[in-house]
Design a protein that fits this description.
The protein is of the alpha+beta class. The chain is built from 24 helices and 33 strands. About 0% of the residues have low confidence. Bound molecules: serine.
Length: about 900
């Protein structure tokens, strides 16, 4: 008997053999369809290939697609567990042609696989076609299905549409007859809803596109979209009537029974079925990035989780149950869907956390429900306010209350529930109106209230579609905005990161899906209304964007990559600083921009070069380790418990995102195993190696007791280092040395320079003293006093006193006058040997010289005086003047 895993492989292998590309399932959160809550069929990821908007390098594909139907239109949640074929999660096997083959091949392919590949008796099958599709009827006949088993259907059952708009076309469905012993009629008959004839495969002939205005146009190309539920075909091939009796579902049911020490087929069977199904949907949703919350997709996840958790409690499980079943699921499905294994820890923690918290209110809520029912007349509906109270106070989603009442044959007044919910929202709105925050940005709070929080898809993708839910232009909400101009666009979902936690907002572009020529440039993304709503600052040159329209969103990939690298490097830097400087290091602020990172931290003194080098080397060592970067969700207390670094003074919600990276070397890291663990909502690299290189630009003071390190990563770091290398190479070339010899060479040159300077000074002095010999300038006798007078060039005033001393020493007794011209100025110095200062003062001599040079003043001591003048043009006159004065004095 083939297992579900075998059947999946057989299907994919068959189409791979027929030249189909085996394409991986797309994530459950649709990136290319903002109107859809979850991917609910195989064609969703190919939507734009059918309409010709997108092209890939294959025209035939086959998939096994994860699907969830639990929110919005296709909501099977209520029935799940109680019926044979309802699931919140299922797998859809499909083959697709994008303008390649059409009906004439799609029908024989399906028939061959069913009758030969799966060996199903052709006589047990019949098919339906759209009533006007003679072509399909002909092909079926040619393929071997007799006319009496080809049923024409005139209703929309055989005209498939993905939604109110989009690709569509007539379809043909294949049914299996489970036999006369089961009640039910063939499709199209009055009792077709019975269980005897079960649809197993739907083949859609994609040939039209439905538009918003109601018109339908023929597509340029004819395509194929097929869908076969794995669980149904699995039941059929395993000879079961109930999908929950297939091997895979049975393994999960048994895991649930084992974990609760109960009988899988006993009275708790329905609980096990609910748990088995919900384990699949919740685990796959978490693996695809959905987190339980009170809005949107996160709320659907929470509803499913809590419904399962109540059934777990009904089985008598004392402790949280769901997370203990995850290994069984990974064992069954981890090979076909590797993302499940990769996210196992995240799935387990998320389930455990939710169940732990929900159990705190579950019992009290159920007691309240019983009390409310006891006070009501037999069979009466539960009033809406009671259901709302359970929701509001005890975290009971409405369908959980309905599920609990179903067992008692009771129902809820849904309209009353909705009214109570509305009343509470109105009260919250009124409270906002009175708060200061609302006065600042009232319209953003209105938008948040009207549209709910923006769903951020950007942890997993940089490309997605979104629906415009609001536009704010010039500070006021508008319905539509036209280019040229600029406005804030709010979308229901977005891959753009809104600036937060030091990480700058994303940039990129958005394309109007109704008119692809209209492309807006997203210059920035910010968060409003307390972070709930993301605004995309969008510039439009021409065309228009309007509320309700859909846009294709593309984040600037290269820029985001640099931001990721810088953000992850900041985490490594934080830990490296703690390791190098001590545990007092705490983050005080940060900036994660595309071109650089900045990290402010508490530390009172500058880092030494050695410390900085150590930090830099450590960060790079963890980059080279190339360990995966992991994200988990936990309570703030748990996060603190494992040593996660949190931003001081920051307020955190009930659940926090915890980012870990690096395998700690011995004695390092926060918990001895992981190097860095931080609370963080930002986007990060997948592996530390993606950071590339890390280089610091140095440390500086940011404010009292806070240091700041700026650094570069990736290409910017490389460019910086390469630039330094280049300059070093240039220096080496100039010095005719090897680069590594440059510092030593420069030191040697500086020493040499110092020695040369001293030598030059000595030589100058010698020159001044008379040409380098020991004769010196000739002394004349002036009234019995030996007098030396000299005009010098290239000697500064600073050097004159030592020259005067040298002359005096040589003369033994006498007077000296030196006039030096340098730097466009004349310096004058006069000296008198001590034995003569009683009769001649150097001060008088200097003053006479200065005056003759056209200057004024001069001063010093009787044995040495100095002065200055504009130039030494009249040096001879000055010497003569001094000589005259000397003659008079002596
Ligand atoms: N899109 C079709 C369906 O969901 C066939 O895959 O039934």
């Amino acid at each position: 008997m083939p297992s579900l895993n075998d059947i999946r492989s057989t299907f994919l292998d068959y189409f791979a053999k027929n030249d189909h590309e085996v394409v991986a399932s797309s994530p459950l959160v649709p990136r290319n369809d903002p109107t859809l809550m979850f991917v609910n069929s195989g064609m969703v990821q190919f939507k734009n290939l059918f309409t010709g908007l997108e092209h890939r390098d294959y025209t035939r594909a086959t998939t096994s697609q994860k699907c969830v139907r639990a929110g919005g239109k296709h909501n099977d949640l209520d029935n799940v567990g109680y019926t044979a074929r309802h699931h919140t999660f299922f797998e859809m096997l499909g083959n697709f042609s994008f303008g390649d083959y059409f009906k004439e091949d799609a029908i024989p392919y399906a028939w061959e696989l069913l009758t030969k590949g799966f060996d199903i008796d052709p006589k047990r099958m019949l098919v339906t076609i759209y009533h006007t599709d003679d072509e399909a009827a002909e092909i079926w006949k040619k393929t071997g299905v007799p006319e009496d088993r080809i049923i024409r259907i005139a209703t929309s059952d055989n005209f498939w549409q993905m939604g109110p708009t989009g690709p569509c076309g007539p379809c043909t469905e294949i049914f299996y007859d489970h036999g006369e012993h089961i009640p039910g009629g063939p499709p199209g008959s009055p009792d077709e809803d019975g269980d005897r004839f079960i649809e197993i495969w739907n083949i859609v002939f994609m040939q039209n596109e439905q538009f918003e205005d109601g018109s339908m146009k023929a597509l340029d190309m004819q395509s194929i979209d097929t869908g076969m539920g794995l669980e149904r075909i699995g039941a059929l091939l395993q000879g079961k009537h109930d999908n929950y009796d297939t091997d895979l579902m049975r393994a999960l049911i048994e895991a649930s029974a084992h974990a609760t020490s109960s009988d899988p087929d006993g009275p708790g069977n329905v609980h096990h079925r609910v748990i088995a199904d919900h384990l699949r949907s919740t685990s796959f949703l978490i693996a695809d990035g959905v987190m339980p919350s009170n809005e949107g997709r996160g709320y659907v996840l929470r509803r499913i989780m809590r419904r399962a958790m109540r059934h777990g409690a009904l089985l008598g499980a004392q402790d949280p149950l769901m997370h203990r079943l995850v290994p069984a699921l990974v064992g069954q499905m981890g090979q076909a869907y590797p993302e499940l294994g990769r996210a196992q820890a995240l799935i387990e923690e998320t389930l455990r956390l939710e169940e732990t918290r929900f159990r705190q209110t579950l019992d009290r809520g159920l007691t309240l429900l019983d009390e409310a029912l006891a006070g009501l007349p037999d069979g009466a509906e539960l009033p809406g306010e009671e259901a709302f109270k359970l929701y509001d106070t005890y975290g009971f989603p409405l369908d959980l209350t309905q599920d609990a009442l179903r067992e008692k044959g009771r129902s809820v007044d849904v309209a009353g529930f909705d009214a109570a919910m509305e009343a509470q929202k109105a009260k919250a709105r009124a409270a906002w109106a009175g708060s200061g925050e609302a006065a600042d940005a009232g319209h953003w709070f209105d938008i948040a209230e009207r549209t709910g929080a923006t769903e951020f898809l950007g942890y997993d993708t940089e490309v997605a579609e979104g629906q415009i839910v609001a536009i704010v232009q010039d500070g006021a909400p508008v319905e539509r905005f036209e280019g040229p101009g600029e406005a804030w666009i709010v979308l229901n979902q977005t891959p753009f990161y809104g600036e937060a936690g030091g990480q700058v907002g994303d940039t990129g572009h958005m394309t109007n899906l109704e008119n692809r020529d209209v492309v807006g440039a997203v210059a920035d993304t910010k968060r409003f209304a307390g972070g709930a709503v993301f605004g995309h600052l969008t510039r439009l040159e021409s065309g228009a964007l309007a509320v309700g329209g859909s846009v294709h969103l593309t984040v600037d990939h290269a820029r985001r990559g640099q931001i990721r690298a810088n953000h992850s490097a900041t985490h490594l830097l934080h830990e490296a600083l703690r390791q190098a400087l001590g545990s007092h290091v705490a983050q005080r602020g940060s900036l994660n921009a595309p071109d650089r990172l900045r990290f402010d931290f508490s530390h009172s003194k500058a880092l030494s070069l050695e410390e900085l080098a150590r930090v830099e080397a450590e960060v790079n060592a963890y980059i080279r380790q190339n360990a995966p970067v992991e994200t988990r969700i936990m309570t703030p207390d748990e996060a603190r418990g494992i040593g996660a670094q949190a931003l001081f003074g920051e307020k955190y919600g009930d659940e926090v995102r915890v980012v870990s990276m690096g395998r700690a070397e011995t004695g390092k890291g926060v918990d001895g195993a992981t190097y860095s663990i931080e609370l963080c909502g930002g986007t990060h690299v997948t592996r530390t190696g993606d950071i590339g290189t890390f280089v610091t630009l140095g440390d500086s003071a940011s404010s009292a007791g806070v240091r700041r390190i700026e650094a570069l990563t990736g290409d910017a770091a490389f460019q910086y280092l390469a630039g330094q290398d280049h300059r070093l190479a240039e220096a080496a070339l100039t010095l005719k040395a090897q680069p590594q010899e440059v510092p030593e060479r420069i030191r040697a040159l500086l020493d040499e320079r110092k020695a040369l300077m001293a030598e030059v000074a000595e030589l100058r002095r010698k020159v001044a003293m008379g040409g380098g010999g020991d004769g010196g300038a000739e002394a004349r006798d002036v009234g019995g006093v030996a007098f030396v007078a000299q005009t010098l060039s290239g000697v500064s005033g600073r050097d004159l006193p030592s020259l005067i001393d040298a002359h005096k020493a040589r003369l033994g007794t006498g007077a000296v006058l030196l006039i030096a011209e340098a730097d466009g100025k004349a310096a004058v110095a006069a000296g008198v040997t001590d034995d003569l200062t009683g009769t001649v003062s150097a001060v008088d001599l200097v003053r006479a010289a200065v005056e003759a040079l056209g200057g004024k003043g001069g001063g010093g001591r009787p044995d040495l005086a100095q002065g200055g003048a504009k130039d030494a043009e009249k040096a001879d006159a000055a010497i003569a003047a001094v000589e005259t004065l000397l003659g008079e004095l002596s």
